[in-house]
Write a structure and sequence with these properties.
By secondary structure, the chain is α+β, with helices and mostly antiparallel strands. It contains 3 helices and 8 strands, in the order ββββαββαββα. Strands 1, 4, 5, 6 and 7 form a 5-stranded mixed β-sheet that branches. Strands 3-2-8 form a 3-stranded antiparallel β-sheet, with no helix packed on it. A hairpin with a 6-residue loop joins strand 2 and strand 3 (38-39). It starts with 6 loop residues before the first strand and ends with a helix.
Length: 156
């Protein structure tokens, strides 16, 4: 990344159900602004905010709960560029640099997409091997890298 590149700091989460590790299904949600695009919850890190603080705040803001525990963390920042259409809306950023976490929902977690600023209209849990069939093309390389890492670690 050159000094001129602007990447928005971001947290992202692969959420597994309370039945993990017996079941290795992951949470994906359908965006309310893009037809048939599903993704992992993610969001920006505010100025002065710690990464894990942002993680739980974003989880609450996006899916209505922070009743989860961290299972693992991807060991480095990983970046992607926005498609041109999205980049215009996200100026001055050309993409995002993310910290990924594998999260397990607690038994009492209640998902509620009707948050203060809803980003998603539906959610489901899908087999980890089918996730990439639902996601946006520009996020697939990052998703694949992170998923493969957690698989190699024996976590997915």
């Amino acid at each position: 990344m050159s000094k001129n590149d602007k990447y928005r700091p971001n947290v992202a989460m692969i959420i597994v159900s309370p039945e993990y590790p017996k079941k290795k299904e992951v949470f994906i949600a359908q965006r309310n602004d893009l037809t048939d695009i599903w993704q992992f919850p993610q969001g920006g890190i505010d100025e002065g905010e710690e990464v894990q603080e942002a993680l739980f705040r974003e989880m609450e803001e996006e899916i209505g709960t922070d009743a989860a525990e961290i299972v693992a963390e991807f060991p480095e920042w990983i970046s992607y560029d926005f498609p041109e259409k999205i980049a215009k809306k996200m100026k001055p950023y050309k993409g995002q640099t993310q910290r990924y976490f594998l999260m397990k929902l607690k038994e009492d977690a209640k998902i509620n997409l009707a948050t203060e600023h809803p980003e998603f209209i539906h959610y489901k849990f899908v087999d980890i091997n089918k996730v990439l069939t639902y996601t946006a093309h520009f996020k697939k390389p990052v998703y694949e890298t992170v998923i493969n890492y957690f698989k190699k670690e024996g976590l997915l």
